[in-house]
Each structure stands twice: as structure tokens, then as C-alpha cells.
Amino acid sequence: MNLTLKIWRQKDANAKGKMVDYKVTDISEHMSFLEMMDVLNEQLVNTGEEPVAFDHDCREGICGMCSMYINGKPHGPDKGVTTCQLHMRMFKDGDTIVIEPFRAVAFPVIKDLVVDRSSFERIQQSGGFISVNTSGNTQDANAIPIAKEAADKAMDAATCIGCGACVAACKNASAMLFTSAKVSQYALLPQGQVEAVERVQNMVRQMDLEGFGNCTNTGACEVECPKGISLENIARMNREYLSASVKG
Fold it and tell me: pTM surpassing 0.90?
């Protein structure tokens, strides 16, 4: 395939960015989107130009780093995949592909398509953990009976990879789906009950401090989430937050 790429180029966080057009040729439909970007960057390096900066790591749909806004969608037109799992067979010869970074106040652009998502880490650090009892009288987690339904829902919530597609898809740049998934994976398990009140209050407070918007209730976050995190988690977090507020 021969393609035209319209890519956001921004030298650094303080520079003014702009869209730049590039041509790539002989792209195989079997390539992943990131492999196509590698071809472009090799072409740019060979001609003495600055390669396009973009995040990537595992390239297996696990790490969540490959955040790109492709043709108006986080991670592109395919469903249930990250950018690294998006294949060029989703496009046609002669297509023009628009590639931008995720847009949110809480996700400032570092360079080109790379954004700073450390706001997610700070939300997680504020309460997304369980304190470990190291007294020597710890109870084996496998010995604690947990209903299968609760365990399954906790596991579903824990599959969130923190890629930020939910924020990019939301017109308010809300982080409710991410935060609620991290709250839910503990709220559903007995191990998470000890710190439940402080956890949800601290994580919601940090989410607001980072500058994320309010939930729009449109469900765009669930639709674009590569791991299919359910909106039920937002409802659960709201219940947990209300309960924590009553308990003080």
C-alpha cells in the first residue's frame, strides 16, 4: 500500500505543534501500525530528518504505552486492540491517515506523539494498593474464600492497562473509567476492605487534582477501551465513594 500520513509534530512541551504530511510506500497489510511507523522513521533517518517520537514497549497489547489518536479514534479503527495490535489491513491503498497524540490537559505532550501520563501513576500511588502485613501472622490469600463472581469481576477490572484511551475518547477527558477500574479490583476482594474508605476518597481526590474532567455518561470510554473495561466499574466507584463519605 501507498499511504499519506498526516502526523502531529511538536519539538517539545513548550513548542507550537503542527500537522506534517509524509508519504510511505510498499506497506504490507500484514504490518502492525507501529511497524509502519518504524518504516517511516527509517525513511526519515535516511534522509537526515528527525524521526517521529512515539511511545512503545511490549508491542503485545499489554503495556499500554502505544497511545496514538488515529483517524479520530484512540488506538485507531479496530476494536478491542491497542495501537501495536492494529494492523495495516484495516486501511486501503491510497488512504490518508491522521495521527495525533492523546489530547487532555492531564496528558501534556512531551514530543510529537508522546504524552506524559504520569497523572495515572499518581492516582494509583494515592490509593491503588493494599498494605502488606509482615508480622509473621499473614494469611495465605489462597485460603480466603472469595465468590467466583466477585473474583471474576475483580480480574476483569484488573485487566486495565492504563493506556489512557478512555481519557482520549471522552469529550471531557475524564479518567473515571481508569480510576474506577483500579478502585474496583480491590473493592471486590476482602483484602481490599481494610483501606476501602481511604482508597476511594484519595484516588478520586487525586484524579480531580490532576485536572481530569467529569464523566459525560456517554460511554465512549468503554467503547474505545482496548480491554473492554465496563462502565459498571464507574457505578461501583460512585457507590464506594458515597459509602466512604457517609462513614467519614
Answer: yes
Helix, strand, coil % in the chain, rounded to nearest 5: 40, 15, 45
Residues 94-131: pLDDT tens digits?
Answer: 999 999 999 999 999 999 999 999 999 999 999 998 88
Distance CA 4, CA 231 (A): 36
198 lies in the same domain as 131:
yes
| One domain for residues 242 and 121 | yes
Between the CA of residue 43 and those of 3, 36, 40, 87, 205, what are the distances in Å? 14, 11, 5, 20, 46
Burial of 44 (0-12, 13-18, 19+ CB in 10 A): middle
Domain boundary at 111, 142, 172, which? 111
DSSP state of 141: G
Sign of the Cα torsion 77, 82, 83, 84 reads: negative
